[in-house]
């Protein structure tokens, strides 16, 4: 009975994996076949000879490497700045008393529910006023600024769960608030920060609409925008597009694997239990 | 008063920069959006924009497309939020079972769609559900399983196209829900379950009476994010159907984006956005207060 149940569960999980992985297998097979002037038929995918031509082409053509580096720069900088700023803000909301705190926080949380898509127009006018349209600092600022509320909301909960008693040793040593922040709150929240790093990397690496709207010149494109434009440029676009997509997925997977460990112990768990 | 000033002085080093950025790129744009919605806004020369009064809002209520887009947006939320949650939680519960092996592998594989890019995944589904025998799903259903006689034009019909959009949204989000619940489930003391077992509780009862109440704050966090994701949904429609056929799969988001960046009718687009914001605010108002409380328990 018990064995049967376990076998059934494993079968279910395997079936689920087929649904999850199936589309990716299709994607990889397509990227390995060439001469795809129309969408390759599943029959062709199975029987055709496979080659890595598409990968070589995708990487070499169409300024792909430039776009790849652009994305890496924008995403890396965004991740760093938003981690630094949101942990400061979360600390402020978690451990400082000041008038209007909860009201301000409520206002922040409300903005999470408003469709962000329309903000692009005023955001664009602000960047224009700062002379930052079509420049990387502008895009990075915009990404950092629009993501802070969510990350602060996420981190505040973790900071509040850290026992205040831990601060005492620092206070006795004459340390100030910043020392407490740096040597207690940050190290103890590494799992949360790791999780946030993954979310932030993913979200930015993936971002499409803002990059499409704000970055005008070809040399400043990021990967998602470039990928989408692959379509118009080549007749045999299917294989190339998927080869390029697979290359684009690699950094996210690397970041995920690096921060995996933090993510695993993650941590929402500690606090998600009511005592 | 002086104490308040002192408190602000202390907190400002931590708050000032982030707050300024949030004002610049979130709060100000929201207010500006409301302002724009009262104008026939001219993007190139904003100064020459003509006041529209409530004209744009009048159009919102007279535009038949709004009805369609609102329907699609609501259906997307109604289908994908519970869909992701139920499948994600079930996966977590299955993987959590003590006798299940290779827990790390399951978790990693089910998480792959989450870390994949939206634009890539959307195109992938668009090709999987392509017309005729070339589309893999048609090939699977017609040529391999012989479930249906003729290939379906998935993206040519409103409801099958909507179905594809819902499927990709659920498919991509399930792993995220699963990972968070797995972590939470692992930290529930085993003794509680043993006690329930001794009392002869059924698994379903155990889940409803013990597990769910214990992870309530997590559920709030997950649901907020899922609802938020449904509200912000955009790329799947933009990349898979472009709102077609005949604009019948537009979401409010894609429709207002089209108004803004294809027809450059920013005033009207902003009016749609403001209405949507008010609608969401009204809908979530009661929940917002309980969210505030739950957060403290985290």
Q: What can you see in these coordinates?
A:
The complex is a heterodimer of chains A (275) and B (298). Chain A has one domain: MetI-like (MetI-like fold, Orthogonal Bundle), CATH 1.10.3720.10. Chain A is built from 14 helices and no strands. The longest helix of chain A has 32 residues. Chain B has one domain: MetI-like fold (Orthogonal Bundle). Chain B has 13 helices and two strands; from the N terminus they run αββαααααααααααα. The C terminus of chain B is likely disordered. Chain B has 298 residues and is mostly helical. Chain B is flat, with a radius of gyration of 24 Å. Chains A and B meet through helix 1, helix 4, helix 5, helix 6 and helix 7 of A and helix 1, helix 3, helix 4, helix 5 and helix 6 of B.
Comma- or semicolon-separated keywords:
heterodimer; A: 275 residues; mainly alpha; MetI-like fold; 14 helices; disordered C terminus; B: 298 residues; two-stranded antiparallel sheet; 2 strands; 75% helix
Series of H and E elements of chain B: HEEHHHHHHHHHHHH
Reading off the top of the CATH hierarchy, the class of chain B is best stated as: Mainly Alpha
Order of helices and strands of chain A: HHHHHHHHHHHHHH
- Which CATH architecture of chain A would you pick? Orthogonal Bundle
Main structural class of chain A: mainly alpha
Please state the CA-atom Rg of chain A, rounded to the nearest Å.
Answer: 23 Å
Largest sheet of chain B: 2 strands, antiparallel
